[in-house]
C-alpha cells in the first residue's frame, strides 16, 4: 500500500518534477502539473526553438531519392532539461534520455544519475545512418562473393527492400525534446488529407518497437513506454463522463505551439487522444494490453529490468489490470467491449467478446504477472489475475474452438435447454451455421471463432486473434497446430496475392448493410471487411516460429516481397485475392513497413521470438486439468474461502 501511495504522490506532483528550460527564455516550467483544471496544452511540454517544417525526399538504397516528400523531424536548436528532486524524497527516474548541450561543439547525454552516455541525438542519428550504409554495403559485397550471379542479384534485390524499409521506418520517427519517442502511422506524401495518420498510435507502434528492439536500438522503445505511461494519468472526459483509471490513449501527437509570453518562440507538447476525437468516439481497449506486452518485450530484449521495476511503471501495470479485472454484470471471464475498440476500429459487428481482445488480454495478464513486483498490496490482484487466467483459457478453448467435429456437434444441438447440465449453454441455433462454413472448413485444421454471445456465434476467421492465441498459448498445442494447418489449407483465401486477410469471409449484401451500417470504407473485401493487411506478417511469423513451422511465414514473406515495395508499402489491399491496393489505403504505412522488417529479422534469428512468446506454466496447466476433471456444472452454493481458481 505504501508503494501505491508513493506512486500516486509521484503522479500527483508530490514526487519528482521534470523541468525543461531554455536560456533564451530565461524561465523554467514543470514538465508535469496537476494543479486545478488539467490543461493538455501545458502538460509534458519542452520549450525550445523549432525549425520550420520542410519537405524532403524519401531516401532509398545508397541515398537514392524516390521523389516522395515527407514531414521533416522537429529539431531542437536548444533544449536543456533537468530533474529536480522534491523534499518528499520520492526518487524517480528520467522519462527518457535527456540531452544537454553546453558549449559549442560540446554535447553530452546525461541520465538522472549523472553518467555521460554518448553523443547528442542529432549526431547519434547521423552516425547511425553512416553505419547503416556501411553495413548495407558490406552485406551486399558478402552476398555477391558467396553465391552465383543469379542468387546474388536476387539477394541484393531483397536487401534493397530491407534497406528501403529501414529508411522509411527511420523517416517516420517522431522526436520530442530532442529524443525519439515513436513513429507516425503513415508518411504518405500523395494524400491531401492527413486526418490522424500523423499521430503515434500505440497499436501501430508495436511492430516498429519490436523492429527497433531486434535491431538493438532500445532508447526509442524506452521513451515510448515511459511517455505513454505519463499520458495514462491524464483526466479523460467526454460529455461530462470519464472512463476508468488506467485507460491508455489510442494515439498522441507532438504539437508545436507558441510559448507563453513570447510569440517568437515555440514549445513542444504531447496531445493524446483517448477516443474523444476518434471516429465513433470509442475508447481503445487494446492500447493498455499492447503496452504491457511491449514492456515485457523491452525487458527481455534489452536486459534492462529497471524500467519495469520503477514505481510509476508498476503502478501503471496495476491500473490497467484493475480496469480489466473490475467486477461487472458479465457472467463470462472474457472482456466485454464495444465495436471498434481494437485493430478493427470501425463498426464490424465485433461488439461483445471479440477474440482479438481476449487473446491480447490473456497475453497481457501473463506478461503482467511475470513483471509485477511482489508486495503486500498486490496479493489480491495476483490472486484475481490467476483466477482469470484459468477461467479465460478454459472458456476460450472450450467454447470458441471449432473444427469439423465441433461443427457437426453444433449442427445437432438441442435448443431451449433450461438446466445446469445443458450442453448447448449459449442456446446456439444450428441454423446459424452458414453454407460457406460447411464448404470452407477443412478436414484437417480448425480455428477460434471471432465472437461468442448468447444465441450468437460469429464464425468469421479473424487472423490477429487466432495468431496471438498461438503466440500467447491461449490455444492448446493441438489447437495451435490446427490453426496453422487451416492457414495452409486455405492459403488461397487467407494469403493469396498478399498476406494476410484481417478476417474471412467479408460481409456482403444485406448483412453488410445491417452490421456495418453501409460503411463506405468497409465495403466487401476492403479495409476491415476482408481486406488484406501486410502488417499481419509479423504476428504470423511469431506464431509459426513458436510452433516450429517457420516455412509457412517464409512463404508468406516471399509473396509480400514480390510487390509491397513496388506498391509503395500500402496500408491494406482490396478484393478477394488482394489484387488491388486499397481504395482508401495510405501509402508508406509505417506498420506495413515494420511488420515486414520484424518478419525478416525473426526468420533470420528465430530465437529472438522469445521476447514475444508466452508459455503456459505448470501451475496453470495443473489448475486447468483440475477444472476439466471436476464437474464444471457443479452444484450451486456459497463460494468456499479456500477456493483458488474459479470459472
> How many domains, in number, for the residues?
1
Q: How many individual β-strands?
A: 21
Q: What class do helices, strands and sheet pairing give? A: alpha+beta
Can you summarize the main beta sheet?
A: 4 strands, antiparallel
The N- to C-terminal Cα distance equals 29 Å
Q: What global shape is seen?
A: globular
| Unreliable residue stretches | 1-43, 47-130, 132-147
Task: Quickly count the helices.
Answer: 20
The third-level CATH topology is Glycosyltransferase
Strand content: 5-15%
Function: Invertase that cleaves sucrose into glucose and fructose.
InterPro entries: 6-hairpin_glycosidase_sf, 6hp_glycosidase-like_sf, Glyco_hydro_100
Catalytic activity: Hydrolysis of terminal non-reducing beta-D-fructofuranoside residues in beta-D-fructofuranosides
Keywords: Carbohydrate metabolism, Glycosidase, Hydrolase
Question: Your description of this structure?
Answer:
With 647 residues, this protein is an alpha+beta fold. The chain has one domain: Glycosyltransferase. The protein is 40% helix and 14% strand. It is built from 20 helices and 21 strands. Strands 3-13-12-11 form a four-stranded antiparallel β-sheet. Strands 2-1-6 form a three-stranded antiparallel β-sheet, with no helix packed on it. The two termini are 29 Å apart. The model is unreliable at 1-43, 47-130 and 132-147 (pLDDT under 50). It catalyses: Hydrolysis of terminal non-reducing beta-D-fructofuranoside residues in beta-D-fructofuranosides. Belongs to the glycosyl hydrolase 100 family.
